[in-house]
Amino acid sequence: MFHDRKDAGRRLANALSGFKGQNCVVLALPRGGVPVGAEVATALDAPLDLLLVRKIGAPRQPELAVGSVVDGGEPIIVRDERIMDMTGTSDAAFDTICARELKEIERRRKFYLGSRRPADLEGRIAIVVDDGLATGNTMRAALKGARQRKPALLVLAVPVAPPSTLAEFRGEADRIVCLETPEPFGSVGYFYENFEQTEDEEVITLLARHAEKPHGGKFKHARM
Description:
about 35% helix
């Protein structure tokens, strides 16, 4: 359906064009969501920031998420009790892995953003972007973390997701924008011709290009 993440971002930006000129912040999930979010930020003339979310993998099956954790004020932790039971993950094991992932979040924020403070979301339109949804566990944590920062409107925006996952997000976001909802789904990468890993250098460059800075008492999109 999409050539690459930039193509997906441009198409997603078209679907979000009604938000242009409003007080928006685009929040991308790294790393794959950043090229998508950068295209949205460009089209909407909005700043781009990160929502740093880490999967909490089962102790013996780390690829299988038993929860997620997101930064922003007080950390938001999402537990999947069903998967915890299925994998035999104890509360103590979950807490140990969670603490490790919180340290990794802090490391990544410093790596990607340096001393840059998180964007102020209060009273603004927060548009949370990723390159697609599968189970949605990571996005669920991201939305809870963003909601805690009191945006006026919380928007979930992705190029592709299974209908069953999107249905679970009713009530998690104020609006949902998704371009394609194919069934059967498989994985997000199936719907991209080029789904190569997004490199750290690209993330840092795009964030710097779309940073916001104080200007006359207000925040303004900085063009570079």
